[in-house]
């Protein structure tokens, strides 16, 4: 499962289950969004949407659960970006060392 797939999933939901509109919003192709949705559903082993022909008509129960958790994950991703951005936007004296203490290296 990739963050990109979750991002695409949320875009589909936020655009009224319209994959073309989701692709336009994401500045990518409709076939690319469809493919990532298919890969996500295959990995999860279930459909996230009810389909009528080539269109998505509604979200399945499993889909609602995945969408809910995907929103939480994407909020956390944004939180991480915000925190790391603020750490390195300050002056050079505010950088943190990622080195482990010598006692942990033995």
From TrEMBL:
Molecular function (Gene Ontology), one example: transcription cis-regulatory region binding
Assigned keywords, A-Z: DNA-binding, Transcription, Transcription regulation
Record-linked Gene3D superfamilies: Winged helix-like DNA-binding domain superfamily/Winged helix DNA-binding domain
GO biological process, any: cysteine biosynthetic process
Coiled coil: none
PANTHER family reported for this sequence: HTH-TYPE TRANSCRIPTIONAL REGULATOR (PTHR30126), HTH-TYPE TRANSCRIPTIONAL REGULATOR CYSB-RELATED (PTHR30126:SF6)
Residue intervals of the HTH lysR-type domain: 1-57
Database matches in PROSITE patterns: HTH_LYSR (PS50931)
Name of this chain's protein: HTH lysR-type domain-containing protein
InterPro entries: LysR_HTH_N, WH-like_DNA-bd_sf, WH_DNA-bd_sf
Sequence similarity: Belongs to the LysR transcriptional regulatory family.
Lineage: Bacteria, Pseudomonadati, Pseudomonadota, Gammaproteobacteria, Woeseiales
Pfam families: HTH_1
């Amino acid at each position: 499962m990739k963050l990109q797939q979750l991002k695409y999933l949320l875009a589909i939901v936020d655009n009224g289950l319209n994959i073309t509109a989701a692709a336009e919003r994401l500045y990518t192709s409709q076939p690319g969004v469809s493919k990532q949705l298919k890969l996500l559903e295959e990995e999860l082993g279930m459909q996230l949407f009810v389909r009528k022909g080539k269109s998505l008509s509604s979200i399945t129960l499993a889909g609602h659960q995945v969408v809910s958790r995907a929103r939480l994950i994407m909020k956390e991703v944004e939180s991480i970006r915000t925190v790391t951005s603020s750490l390195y936007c300050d002056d050079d004296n505010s950088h943190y060392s990622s080195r482990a203490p010598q006692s942990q290296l033995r």
